[in-house]
Amino acid sequence: MKTAIVILNWNGKKLLEQFLPAIVNFSAHEAEVYVADNASTDASISYIKEYFPSVKIIKNAVNGGYAKGYNDALKHIVADIYCLLNSDVAVTKNWLQPILQVFNADEKTAIIQPKILDFKDTTKFEYAGAGGGFIDLFGYPYCRGRVFNQLEKDEQQFNDVVDVFWASGACFFIRSKVYHQLGGFDEDYFAHQEEIDLCWRTQNIGYTVKYVGSATVFHVGGATLEESNPHKTFLNFRNSLLNVVKNVPKKWFLLVVFSRLILDGIAGLKFMIELRPLHTWAILKAHISFYANFFKFLKKRKSLQKRQDYNLHTSIVWQYFVLGRKKFEELK
Q: Quick one: pLDDT at residue 313?
């Protein structure tokens, strides 16, 4: 299979200097490497041309964020498998082979992510994806190895190959035919959780999402928006609500929407108690934006084929905050 590694870049010359050499060295035999540039104003492009002439460059006209950035770039790339790779990810030797083997073995597998460890503390899983993602009844995402902000140590407990609900956009492999069949990412998300929506839609049409623990990468995280940035809070809460409206099965829909209004209100109160009022305001803005987009996403929902058998019975909020279950294996 022809594989394309596509790195989305926006003013990320320093990150390219740090991480692009290993990507090229460890991937040249299995894949072509592209940089999709989101209208950078730094010296990113000249750096690539000078030091990595084998890397192909696609220049996007505007900085449309993660979703539009990839949608624009992938129109110009012909490959069987796309690997959408953040510019702040360190890859390892032989990282591609286990993933490509799974794609070759199972044509129903459409999306894969590797094990994602923390670049700053390589003994721990990283927030964005960890050991593969899941989603609870109320639309809150969590991972094997990461429940809310609780990160587990990597003790080879997730070295397996398993079906998961979503794969991390930090290192996101997808069959090109599925990507284009579904129209790519939903650009209304701009950034954050658009990969969950795409994974959800992929499963709606009968494909599976997998985690391959024998392949490992290390993610810096927060290179675009730090965890403490209120705008990240806004995007995560707003886009999570949009996922609910767009994708949650009909039998759960009203319960989930009304419950989220209450739960997000509690989260906003928690931020106030922690003296982080900007994050409370970010949640309020997320809900205002959600209401403004509600009927637009309700219309999108009607165009999607629905599966009704998702196992969305867990409340991660209840288990984590009330029952004190901090690790994935403790969840029920």
A: 64
Per-residue pLDDT, 303: 65
Domain end point (choices 32, 66, 87): 87
C-alpha to C-alpha distance for 331 and 321, rounded to whole angstroms: 12
Tally of CA atoms within 13 A in the half-sphere of 137 that contains its CB: 16
Binned at pLDDT 50, 70 and 90, residue 63 comes out as very high
Q: Which helix (H) or strand (E) holds 130?
A: none
Nearest to 153 by CA among 316, 317, 328, 323: 328
Q: Which helix (H) or strand (E) holds 37?
A: strand 32-38
Strands 32-38 and 56-60: parallel
Q: Residue type for 63, please?
A: N
181 within a domain of the structure (yes/no): no
| 109-118 and 56-60 beta bridge pairing | unpaired
To which residue do tokens 């209450």 refer? 262
Which whole number is the average pLDDT over 293-314? 72
Tokens of 252: 């759960």
In this prediction, residues 92-96 reach a mean pLDDT of 95
Range of the domain at 255: 230-320
Distance CA 169, CA 112 (A): 10
User: At 233, is the secondary structure helix, strand, or coil?
Assistant: helix
Query: Where residue 226 falls among pLDDT bands split at 50, 70, 90?
Result: low
Number of structural domains, the chain?
A: 2
Burial 125-151 (b: 16+ CB within 10 A, else e): bbbbbbbbbbbbbbbbbbbbbbbeeeb
Contact partners, residue 127, CB within 8 Å, separation at least 6 = 118, 146, 149, 151, 221, 227
Position 225 pLDDT exceeds 60: no
Q: How far is the CA of 323 from the CAs of 12, 178, 179, 202, 326, in angstroms?
A: 42, 39, 39, 33, 9
Amino acid (1-letter code) at residue 52: F
Question: What is d(CA 91, CA 19) in angstroms, rounded to the nearest whole number?
Answer: 8
On whether residue 97 sits in a domain, the answer given is: no
Look at 306 and 287; give whichever has higher pLDDT. Answer: 287
Is the confidence at residue 307, as pLDDT, over 60? Answer: no
Q: Which pLDDT score, from 0 to 100, does residue 121 have? A: 96
